[in-house]
Specification:
Number of strands: 8
Distance between the termini: 24 Å
Strand content: over 45%
Shape: globular
Largest sheet: 8 strands, antiparallel
Oligomer: single chain
Radius of gyration: 18 Å
Order of helices and strands: EEEEHEEEE
Structural class: mainly beta
Length: 135
């Protein structure tokens, strides 16, 4: 029988010049999106598009529940802040997946609904080679 990943096992940390901020306790969603660009290498009498892989990239995004007095999050997730996002969907046990993603914060955006909890959303744009390894 298959085992499924449970959300509460997530370890999610933002390491930047001001220190390390754990985002896991406040997160609602985390998206990881690696990608690659392609170069069209079609020529002459080719009947189908031929492609070569080119530069790789990635983005990530998180949605968090806002805490009162959350000035650390405001500073840490300011637009253009560089750091490393650690995403560990199954926690830090030996052999579990660990994504280390050097990136920039796209800046936090805040949603203040009238009769619901305040949410913070932040995207991250890659800055170099990410590693998809294990603890």
């Amino acid at each position: 029988m298959a085992e499924f990943i449970a959300g509460p096992t997530m370890v999610l940390s933002w390491i930047y010049s001001g220190g390390t901020v754990s985002l896991a306790g406040d997160y609602r969603t985390c998206s990881w999106n690696p990608s690659v660009n392609f170069v069209d290498s079609s020529a002459g009498s080719d009947l189908f598009v031929q492609r070569l892989t080119a530069l790789k990239d990635a983005t990530a995004s998180v949605t968090l529940v806002a805490q009162t007095g959350g000035t650390v999050i405001n500073t840490a997730l300011a637009p253009g802040v560089g750091g490393t996002l650690i995403i560990a969907p199954e926690g830090t046990a030996t052999g579990k997946r660990k994504i280390s993603f050097p990136c920039y914060s796209d800046g936090a955006s805040y949603d203040h609904p009238y009769s619901d909890i305040v949410a913070i959303s932040c995207g991250f744009t890659g800055n170099g080679t990410h590693t998809d390894g294990v603890y």
